[in-house]
Amino acid sequence: MKHRWWFWLMLLFIIMTGCAGGEKNDLEKVGLLLSHPIDDQGWNSKAYQGMLNIQSSLGVDVYIKEDVQTMSSIMEAVNELHDEGVNLIFGHGILYADYFMDLKRSYPDVHFVSFNGEVSGENITSLHFKGYAMGYFAGMLSSKMSETNTVGVIAAFPFQPEVDGFKDGASFQNDDIEVMIEFVESWVDEEKAVEYFRKMKSEGADVFYPAGDGYHVTVVEEVKNEGLYAIGYVGDHIDLGESTILTSTVQRVEKLYEYVAEAYKQGELDNGNLYFDFSEGVITLGEYSSEVPEEVVQWIETHIERYIETGKFPHEK
Hints:
single chain, 317 residues, alpha/beta, Rossmann fold, 2 domains, six-stranded parallel beta sheet, six-stranded mixed beta sheet, globular
């Protein structure tokens, strides 16, 4: 999909609306909490790149803490960041939303930002990606490209909206498609994810959507070795195998970090829940494989354009 830069202007407007006229905030130091290591080539890597964007564009110091998962470790990390003078803290995932809700009262001079969880009140924001839409178009393409009429989703957790989206999109394209779904119950358990891949392959699946940031690369390598197809997750993963990756469901997280930091600095970052989708350019499909016929690319792009214009999925008239 050709990127429309005006989408980013819309995105910045969305982040900033509702707080016009707010006083500017001093922003000298920004913190980031990650639940897993930074080098996953996916979700956590994008957070790291987002922090580099902030450091470069705004000239502020950034602090990053990895493997912060428990309440005690989060409390310790937030306290250490606060002592360093950090006043904008990102928690990179749904894990941090509830914890930040408990902590924000103790740190009124810190603005807490998490992802995909429900928050309310002052000095806290949650950024939501509309994962259902992301999965929906991945499902449509997977179903279209399957030769066995069987596709598989290897997801991390049942709460991921892209799972239902994938199933619905695949079913819209083909009433007879079989969508196999397994949950790893972890973002990083490569062994279990590969086990599910092999099970699905043995039962006829030929297109796979490994929707877990810590194990998707390993699964894609298995898919590639078997000469089958996969949909990339979070990043544009065409470089993992141009003949394997049909396309990717891309979340442009790194850009969102920079916009949020700038909005905070200007005193224009909303509290509460903010939502982002294809229409803001935050979610896109990545580069297409040459294995995908041009008419199929145009078919899926036409449906995405309609969704951007109307907010309606292909099955909605």
